[in-house]
Amino acid sequence: MRLATNLAAALTASFLILATSPAALASTHETTADLAEQSRMLAPRATKAYLMVQQGINPETGRRLLAESVSRLDQNLAALRSAKLDDTAHAKLSAVETRWSSVRARLTAAPDATGAKALYDDTEALQTATQHLAMAINSTGSEDARRLTLPARMRLLSQRIGMFYLYRDSGLMTPNAPTMELSYARSEFSANLVRIRRNDALPADTRRAVEALNQVWSDYDGAAGKPGTPGELKKNAPAVMEMSEQVLGATEKLVVSLLGPARP
């Protein structure tokens, strides 16, 4: 019960940051670019929540997270549709919307093994489409706008880790592929965090956000990568899901600190 309560609190905190972060943005272009990047993260987050429900891991919290993630992705795509995009970005957005239509149908159906297995590839395709959209938007922006690329990638990775942790012991496939993807995501997150911590030019509020992220990342990395029997992995899953939301919230705060006006 305590883990379920903590997960609900972590979910609420991270989602409040997701919902309010655009107000802190420095420019219309950065708002648009971050909506695309945030949508990219919401794809594995929604699938992670779907798997929580399907596997019986804090299912009520999983249902709430799933509904909120789907709603937020709907809102982001609607905002992007009304944004000032060039022809290339509009074409990429149309591709995202096509992918999202089929993924959304699976996510909003009753979770089952068939849907979970299909979402493994479908989620990857949606992430790729949103990546291409973000790249198209960023290609017309200033160099400053691209400072978000690394932390936005880490935001995505935080949810890929949680998703692949659940796929690893799902019984839907051999564990080799999700185990490899989990390892890649953890390694890349760690490497990116090291790169950011070495940047001495960051303003003070961003440095504080980086150190706060570093503190919660260590536990998440260790828990997600800890080997164990299928039973042990499932037993530890609620704690790992809680940590995934904590790391997402900390990563989102880092993004917000970069989007807002720089302070010494």
Order of helices and strands: HHHHHHHHH
General shape: globular
* Contiguous runs where pLDDT drops below 50 for at least 5 residues: 20-26
Helical content stands at over 70%
Query: In oligomeric terms, what are we looking at?
Result: single chain
Question: Overall mean pLDDT score?
Answer: 88
User: How much strand?
Assistant: under 5%
Characterize the largest beta sheet: strand count, sense, and whether it forms a barrel. none
Number of domains: 1
The total of beta strands comes to: 0
Keywords: Membrane, Signal, Transmembrane, Transmembrane helix
Main location: membrane
Organism: Zoogloea ramigera
Protein name: NarX-like N-terminal domain-containing protein
Describe the protein's architecture and organization:
There is one protein chain. The chain is an all-alpha fold. It has one domain (2-258). The protein is built from 9 helices and no strands. α3 runs antiparallel to α4 (87-107) and α6 runs antiparallel to α9 (230-259). It starts with a helix and ends in a 5-residue tail after the last helix. The relative contact order is 0.15. The model is unreliable at 20-26 (pLDDT under 50).
Provide a short characterization of the protein structure.
The chain is mainly alpha-helical and 264 residues long. It has helices at 2-20, 28-55, 59-81, 87-107, 113-138, 149-168, 176-197, 204-225, 230-259. The longest helix has 30 residues, at 230-259.
Show the helix and strand layout.
Elements: H1 2-20, H2 28-55, H3 59-81, H4 87-107, H5 113-138, H6 149-168, H7 176-197, H8 204-225, H9 230-259
